[in-house]
Design brief:
Strand content: 5-15%
Largest sheet: 5 strands, antiparallel
Structural class: alpha+beta
Helix content: 40-55%
Strand order of the largest sheet: 7-6-14-13-12
Distance between the termini: 105 Å
Length: 584
């Protein structure tokens, strides 16, 4: 220390040492505030409430279920109404001192803390039934000391406000049993097709055993593991005096008897309609049925035909995916294939993919011209054209080299004729026509619009074609029975409607869509640059169908055109559907 330096100041005494009483009072006030907050904020009946997204069972138009979405929970149970071996199974394996502790089992906590310190993290919970209820009803599944502290505080609050039977009832009514099943009543129905009051000793032991690892031990996933865990529970029940050794031996072979039909969780159609279906229902226990517009017979045909077509020609064409959507002229969607294999890819190419429609967009170009007085017999030049630096070409550079009728230009899908026509009528009228027919996708305002360069969904494009078949627009696609979208429709003028039908019929009888030729077929082919997309969209009678093939990475196919495989898929589906439609 130099002569100019004074002595070092003494170290500051921590506040809690200088003001012990104040610090203790502050801690007490903080604890009291926490309890007051819990009293005000925590709904004690949450475990007894239905799930926010209950099980939704989707049925087809005939009422047959085809998909189930969401978790499953039934009405709450009352422990006083359950057999002793049912409650005893859960107490024996989960919390033997439940009726004697105050929400926290200090011996269990000490044991868990010792094991966690050895493991270097949270490896064992040591939670009581009250703590598990606190976690299940109010907290996340995060494994941390912070969450455990919150869990303990809420457990103390629950013990102060509820009786032991009330806590136990809430726990059994909300605990997770795997397979998307919550609560004992739902678990008894799901795994054994019975009420919880009727569970046998072995069945009760198996359900109690699931709580430790419900996803892994669910008997529908691993029956052997579920039985092994049930034997552990039976041994615990013997130790606690709930059952005898002889009863435990007799209860070892538990058989599954599932009480709910085994339905797929998802399909392309189910994914599309689920969000809208949920809007129409309040929270409820059990399963909620929603009838859809799906025709299961048409759906089966659509899946079979798409898969067969890709298996036969997809490799040669380098076409990895396909989509199909079918609807009635009022917008009811009756079949939907969003891809080659839902199990491999849930991306719905009929609804969510935004792809260029190619020449299928020309419908709106010609519609704008018809509105300005053009007729199918009026002629337009089918010869090379230049627009600035852009020189559109016909497929394989084939031109008539002279004026041809609009009918022939549309049927042959002449690109240069469509561009000339678009230049004549203007892009704004074309966009207006598309909007009138229900197209809401963003549309470019330059002349490339005429060749379908603006992406849109297959569902939206097909609905626009449905407007021609219906003679009114727009047609809004929907999938829930009796819940057609609200909104006015405009009747298409007779001349406009008949001219469009004339053009669409010519495509099938004398143009690029001859491969789609079935009775009453009207439609249009579409092929995009470098063969990245190929489509056929059209109708026969009141059935409107759109088909697309391509690749998810937008890579080119091998000379795949809309008049090829898409038209063949369209034809095969419509041909298969027509007899089925007559049967309804």
């Amino acid at each position: 220390m130099t002569p100019h330096e004074g002595p070092e100041p003494p170290a500051a005494t921590p506040f809690w040492k200088r003001r012990r009483w104040q610090a203790a009072g502050g801690a007490l006030l903080a604890l009291l505030a926490a309890f007051l907050f819990l009293t005000w904020a925590l709904p004690l009946g949450r475990a007894l409430e239905p799930l926010s997204t209950p099980t939704l069972v989707l049925t087809d138009s005939d009422g047959r279920p085809f998909a189930r979405r969401g978790a499953y929970k039934e009405a709450p149970v009352e422990v006083k109404e359950l057999p002793g071996h049912v409650t005893g199974a859960f107490l024996a394996i989960e919390d033997r001192r439940f009726y004697s502790h105050f929400g926290l089992d200090l011996a269990g906590i000490a044991r868990a803390a010792r094991d966690n310190l050895r493991a270097g993290g949270v490896a064992q919970g040591g939670s009581t039934i009250t703590q598990q209820l606190a976690k299940n009803a109010f907290l996340s599944n995060e494994r941390s000391w912070r969450r455990k502290a919150q869990e303990a505080l809420i457990a103390l609050y629950l013990e102060a406000r509820l009786s032991k039977d009330e806590i136990f009832s809430r726990y059994l009514s909300a605990v997770y049993f795997g397979d998307g099943v919550f609560g004992l009543r739902a678990a008894a129905r799901h795994y054994f097709d019975k009420e919880p009051e009727a569970l046998s000793i072995g069945e009760a032991a198996m359900l109690a055993g699931l709580v430790k690892a419900p996803s892994r031990l669910a008997p529908t996933e691993d029956l052997a593991a579920a039985r092994a865990r049930a034997r552990v529970v039976l041994a615990a029940m013997v130790e606690t005096g709930v059952i005898s050794e002889a009863q435990a031996r007799a209860a070892r072979n538990v058989r599954l008897r599932e009480g709910r039909a085994d339905l797929p969780v998802g399909t392309y159609f189910a994914d599309w309609i689920t969000r809208e279906a949920r809007r129409g229902f309040d929270r409820a226990f059990g399963e909620i049925e929603a009838r859809t517009t799906l025709d299961s017979r048409l759906q089966s045909q659509a899946e079979r035909i798409v898969e067969r077509a890709l298996a036969r020609q997809g490799g040669a064409l380098n076409a990895g995916q396909a989509a199909l959507v079918a609807m009635r002229t009022d917008g009811r969607v009756v079949a939907m294939v969003g891809g080659r294999d839902y199990a491999q890819s849930q991306f719905n190419r009929a609804v969510d993919a935004q792809r260029q429609p190619g020449s299928a967009f020309k419908l709106f170009v010609y519609q704008a011209a018809i509105r300005q007085g053009w007729t199918p017999d009026r002629e337009i030049l089918d010869a090379p054209v230049k627009v600035g630096d852009w020189e559109p070409e016909n497929h394989e550079a084939r031109y008539a080299g002279r004026p041809i009728s609009l009918r022939r230009a549309f049927a042959g899908s002449s690109n240069v004729a469509a561009v000339r026509l678009a230049r004549e009528v203007g892009t704004d009228p074309i966009i207006r026509a598309a909007r009138d027919m229900g197209v809401s996708a963003p549309l470019t305002r330059d002349l490339t619009l005429a060749l379908g360069t603006s992406p849109m969904s297959l569902l939206e494009l097909t609905a626009a074609y449905a407007a021609v078949a219906a003679g009114e627009a727009p047609i809004r696609p929907y999938g829930l029975a009796g819940r057609a979208p609200a909104g006015e429709r405009r009747v298409l003028p007779a001349g406009e409607r008949e001219a469009l039908r004339d053009l669409l019929r010519a495509v099938v009888t004398q143009g690029t869509g001859r491969a789609a030729g079935v009775s009453g077929a009207h439609g249009k082919t579409g092929t995009t640059q470098d063969y990245r997309d190929a489509l056929f969209v059209g109708y026969a009678g009141d059935l409107v169908v759109g088909v697309w093939i391509g690749n998810d990475d937008n890579s080119p196919m091998r000379r795949a055109v809309g008049g090829g495989l898409p038209a063949q898929i369209w034809r095969d589906f419509v041909a298969a559907a027509q007899p089925l439609c007559l049967d309804t």
